[in-house]
């Protein structure tokens, strides 16, 4: 066998988005790109804010000596200070550069956190549905995923999470605003989660870490900013990136923030820096660290995403699809009108609609649409959804 058996198994288990992408390429060749409605990828179609390009021009025009060299593996002090200042203001906690590690995106950051925290065989609880890569990231570091269903409306169920915690539990990963549902967890839910985790920690005599994956934190609608986990959960780490809020996914830039309330924050920081280095990332890209330092309060134009959300949500719910109106991120997660989500997604292809089955997110019976695509493509796709709904008698 040319590759490891485990990876061969993972390849087939994780291939949904890739399969749909390949299908899309085929359909685009046959029908032309404007006739194929590809809702599969979470790749922002908007451009980074103007301020990013201005800063890029300034740096390119005035190269500094040594700006491309290795640095402290945690990242530039200037960048970590900029991140810490904003987090301290938002959370009311004494966040310093000693709580911040710059990373290669949120994906890199999650791997660094999991490598730092997990002992072999320990469990990480994830509410379903979830970003499928968590499964592989946890496996990378010898852990296993324990799935816990969410409550009505895909909201977190703190009691169900508490019931799933056992002596082998090391961490819980949450993601709000959520991929794939677009749901945002309110402050009361985070507070309730903080309470039950603390009770479990006392009962079991060990620390359970809350890892909050937040790449969509600045992409929220209708004025409800997602609450800050540091305020509600003591043993928490935030992992985030500028892939979505500054539309820079190809640049691989993000950070980990350690809650200053954690007693062992300094040791965790040392562990994170070591793992950033030894996972081979070494440090987050130097040039982009300098670029994002002054942009910590910037984001892409959220109104563009809101318009796309409204267009698609109004049309689908009007057709009779059972779908929650997202409060953040750029995904919709409707229920399929038939049980078999894979069959549903296959039949949608007849109308040149490319969707991802909920099975790919640990939630069969649903499908995900990523609406970070051209608004005109969304408009063009609406009659295709109408025909799809008709086929299923909605
Ligand atoms: N977490 C979630 C929930 C995501 O949706 C993504 C990317 O789509 C990531 C993490 C990884 O993002 P990054 O590009 O910052 O590695």
Automatic annotation (TrEMBL):
Transmembrane segments: none annotated. GO terms for molecular function: pyridoxal phosphate binding; transaminase activity. Pfam families: Aminotran_1_2. Keywords: Aminotransferase, Transferase. CDD domains: AAT_like. It comes from the Bacteria. Residues 65-377 form the Aminotransferase class I/classII large domain. The keyword Cell membrane does not apply. NCBIfam families: PRK06836.1 (NF005305). This is Aspartate aminotransferase. The lineage of its organism: Bacteria, Bacillati, Bacillota, Clostridia, Eubacteriales.
């Amino acid at each position: 066998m040319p590759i490891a058996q485990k990876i061969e198994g993972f390849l087939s288990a994780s291939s949904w988005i890739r399969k749909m992408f390949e299908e899309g390429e085929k359909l685009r060749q046959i029908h032309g790109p404007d006739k194929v409605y590809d809702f599969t990828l979470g790749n922002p179609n908007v451009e980074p804010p103007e301020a990013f390009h201005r800063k890029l021009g300034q740096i390119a025009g005035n190269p500094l000596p040594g700006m491309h060299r290795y640095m402290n593996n945690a990242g530039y002090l200037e960048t970590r200070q900029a991140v810490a200042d904003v987090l301290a203001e938002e959370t009311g906690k004494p966040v310093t550069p000693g709580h911040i590690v710059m990373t290669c995106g949120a994906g890199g950051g999650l791997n660094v956190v999991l490598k730092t925290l997990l002992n072999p065989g320990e469990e990480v609880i994830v509410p379903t549905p979830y970003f499928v890569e968590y499964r592989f990231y946890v496996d990378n570091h010898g852990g296993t995923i324990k799935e816990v269903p969410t409550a009505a409306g895909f909201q977190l169920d703190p009691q169900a999470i508490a019931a799933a915690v056992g002596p082998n539990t090391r961490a819980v990963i949450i993601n709000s605003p959520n991929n794939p549902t677009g749901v945002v967890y309110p402050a009361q839910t985070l507070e309730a989660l903080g309470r039950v985790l603390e009770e479990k920690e006392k009962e079991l005599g060990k620390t359970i870490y809350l890892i909050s994956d937040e790449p969509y934190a600045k992409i929220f609608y209708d004025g409800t900013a997602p609450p800050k986990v540091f305020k509600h959960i003591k043993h928490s780490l935030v992992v985030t990136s500028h892939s979505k809020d500054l539309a820079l996914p190809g640049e691989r830039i993000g950070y980990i923030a350690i809650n200053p309330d954690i007693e062992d924050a300094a040791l965790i920081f040392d562990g994170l820096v070591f793992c950033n280095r030894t996972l081979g990332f070494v440090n987050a890209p130097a040039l982009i660290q300098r670029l994002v330092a002054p942009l910590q309060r910037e984001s892409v134009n959220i109104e563009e995403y809101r318009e796309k959300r409204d267009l698609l949500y109004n049309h689908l719910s009007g057709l009779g699809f059972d779908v929650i109106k997202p409060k953040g991120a750029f995904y919709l997660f409707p229920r399929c009108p038939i049980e078999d989500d894979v069959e549903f997604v296959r039949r949608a292809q007849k109308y040149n609609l490319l969707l991802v089955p909920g099975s790919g997110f640990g939630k069969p019976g649903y499908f995900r649409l990523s609406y970070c695509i051209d608004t005109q493509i969304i408009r063009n796709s609406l009659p295709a959804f109408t025909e799809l709904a008709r086929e299923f008698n909605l």
